[in-house]
Amino acid sequence: MSFKVVIDGVFFQIGRSGIARVWTQLLQQWVDNGFARQVVVIDRARSMPRLPGITYVDAPAFAYGDHDRRLVQAICDQVQAQVFISTYYTLPVSTPSLMMVHDLIPELLGWDLSEPMWQQKQQAMAYATRFVSVSHNTAKDLKAYLKRPDLPVDVAQNGCDFQPAGAQAVQDFRERQGLVKPYFLLSGSRSDYKNAVLFFRAFALLGDQRAEYTILCTGGGAVEPELLALAGPADVRVGILSDQDMVCAYSGAQALAYPSTYEGFGLPVLEAMACGCPVISTNAASLPEVGGDAPLYVNLGAHEAEQLHAHLLAVRQPAVRAAMVAKGLRQAGLFRWDQMAQQIQAALQTTVNEANTQLHRPSLDKPAMQKLHPTDQWITYDHCAIALPADHLLPHYQQQHKFYDHFLPHLAKALPQGSVAIDVGANCGDTVAAMFDTNPTLSYICVEPDQGFYAYLAHNSALIRQSHPQADLRLVQSLVGKQGTSAVLTGGGGSKRALAVSGEDDPALQGASVHRSISLDDIATAQLGDQLQRISLLKSDVDGFDHDVLASAARVLDQVKPVLFFECQATDEAQLAAYKACLSSLALQGYTRFWLFDNYGNPMLSTGDAQAVNQLFDYIWRQACQGATRTMYYVDILATHEGNAALAETAVQSYLAAMAAR
To answer: Residue 565, SS3?
Structure first.
């Protein structure tokens, strides 16, 4: 079946590293096999090399924000594309997307996922119709990270067209680079997970023999002093090499040393083998999948430097070297660009087929098949449905308390069409699903730090998009609060609360993942750019730290003054004081109307006096901590300035009417 695919060439705007080489090869393969007739490539700011036979569409350079998604969607609509794929992490609004995943490095190595690039990746993963990865190990990591063991992930391994350089070409290269001595090759950056320090520690064990060698580093930048100290008398050089020079560098090296602790694929290992270069690598992640039986592997651990040192000696032995070269050439022959191109073509076709199936199938057909886990609970609304973990207590609470968590859909219905609602503490997506059910025209920014809840949020957002392709649901995995705050998440039954931690030795850690907060102002700016005025609602439910969320939104509150709906649950005197200070601050910012709901969703009070709200805080505090009979645990507050008071009152009256009718 013929279909049109749009490819966003955004990575070429960023750099010309391995991912750019992969996509250049794929496009050339599609020119050669005729598939290019179905391809349209978005060229960002004319940053791509243009191949004859490919149709290109000019577009501005990528910038974070909703406007870029609309730009991509407009191009997809213009060419009537049935499927979209990005060279990095861009995404459309409604066209089905095949996401190529090269690695899970930021997610698995503890990088700051609040960075805009990784937030963009999280959004792309949440939006994707289907995934293709460059290795079986990356497919496994993706399923584990998303907590989707049954997730279908196609695998299309990278190819390689490098071949051993001739003796004269190698000699010319050595002369240009001043390489007189035998040399070991280090590829890529030297810090962090690339683990170059392991090579230098092993190299230091050569002692006086170090003077006999050169170390050629291709990652650029000045070599770190601590590494130079380990290199001793060796000649250490740095070079930024073209592909042609890289072929010569591999072909003339004693060995490629690649001591990485994690790779999504490991393209330098494949390239080195293809050039007849012995490889010394670790057995981490995807590296054995790429290297097969050709490299000498290091087991990371207590004696890793000694192992690598032994391998440095082994590659000098002619018999060992000859065997490694032969095995490497044979292994490299298994990885072909034409094969990768065909596999991605097939994955694109599958994505189109699945999207067409969803388009012609009722959205709630066979809902059990759309659960994240077999034991999930299934909750249906009028226009969408979501899955919740088996132990999530929301269905129980709503069964026991008929008004529990039912107000926000009435509020969403009253909000201006096309405006933005921000849901902090989005949990599994139950609130946004309920609001979307009454106002699908809103853009929803859903923020959730907990990985387990976020997996459900992503899954449920995808379910909503299946039946409503126009849905604008943007997901952010982050803790929200004052910049730089660190916390761990504890709890269960569908609820998590943050515990602030003071340092690595804080007893609250106990092996838990530490989340560093990002301000809501920064999240809103990253998502909306200069369109902050679109924000109509800021909802927060983070069990005791909602005051911190609001404090981190000073710019949004000052400039936009959206409707606020937030929980107030104090478990200590510091939190009680913080909520009172929050109310006083809101009053100073022009929030003059407050509606209070008890923890079961029953309206209690409407007032223009922040001090009256503080008195209610004291009432609940006495119940919680001073032995009074417990009837309440927390309150939810709807707060507006005068300009939105009528809108809020309309929502409250709608809610009261619905309560009376039940």
So the answer is: strand
CA 203 to each of CA 172, 255, 299, 322: distance values in angstroms, whole numbers, following the listed order? 27, 13, 17, 22
Q: What is the mean pLDDT of the chain?
A: 88
Residues 284 and 193 in one domain: yes
Residue from 324, 326, 340 nearest 158 by CA: 340
- Those residues whose C-beta lies under 8 Å from the C-beta of residue 473, and which sit 6 or more positions away, are 126, 432, 436, 444, 446, 461, 464, 465
Domain total in the chain: 3
Q: What is the pLDDT of residues 261-292, one digit of tens each?
A: 999 999 999 999 999 999 999 999 999 999 99
Domain assignment present for residue 568? The answer is yes
Q: How far apart are CA 131 and CA 150, in angstroms?
A: 12
User: CA-to-CA distance for 497 and 572, rounded, in angstroms?
Assistant: 14
Count of C-beta atoms within a 10 Å radius of residue 189:
14
Strand partners of residue 568: 635
Tokens 């599994």 sit on residue: 428
| Domain of residue 233, CATH code | 3.40.50.2000
Q: Looking at the structure, do residues 395 and 455 belong to the same domain, yes or no?
A: yes
Other Cβ atoms less than 10 A from the Cβ of 544: the count is 19
CB 516 within 8 A of CB 114: yes
> Model's pTM, two decimal places?
0.61
Both 252 and 399 in one domain: the answer is no
Whether residues 348 and 452 fall in one domain:
no
Residue 408 · residue 435 · CB < 8 Å = yes
Q: Give the phi and the psi of residue 602 in degrees, each rounded to 5.
A: -90, 125
DSSP output for 254-284: SEEEE--S--SS-HHHHHHHHTT--EEEE--
The runs of H, that is alpha helices, within 2-153 are: 11-14, 18-33, 66-79, 105-108, 116-127, 136-145
Per-residue pLDDT, averaged over 61-90, amounts to 91
Report the pLDDT value the prediction gives residue 114, as an integer from 0 to 100: 79
Higher-confidence position of 591 and 18: 591
Burial 266-290 (b: 16+ CB within 10 A, else e): bbbbbbbbbbbbbbbbbebbbbbbb
Question: CA separation (Å) from 133 to 174, 458, 543, 614?
Answer: 36, 19, 37, 54
SS3 for 296? strand
Q: What pLDDT was estimated at residue 297?
A: 97
On whether both 143 and 221 belong to a single domain, the answer is no
Q: Do 182 and 69 sit in the same domain of this protein?
A: no
Average pLDDT over residues 10-36: 92
Instruction: Report the CATH number at residue 377.
Output: 3.40.50.150
Q: Can you give the residue range of the structural domain that contains 12?
A: 5-157+338-359
User: Can you read off the two tokens belonging to residue 610?
Assistant: 């922040």
Amino acid identity of 282?
T
Picking from 325, 359, 393, the residue at the C-terminal end of a domain is 359
pLDDT value of residue 487: 56
Q: What DSSP designation does 617 have?
A: H
Q: Which two tokens stand for residue 632?
A: 């309440």
- 365 pLDDT more than 50: no
123 Cβ contact list (under 8 Å, min separation 6): 89, 91, 474, 475, 476
Of 66, 137, 107, residue with least CA distance to 455:
107
pLDDT grade for 384, boundaries at 50, 70 and 90 = confident
Lowest mean pLDDT among 157-166, 464-473, 625-634: 625-634
Specify if 162 maps to a domain.
Answer: no
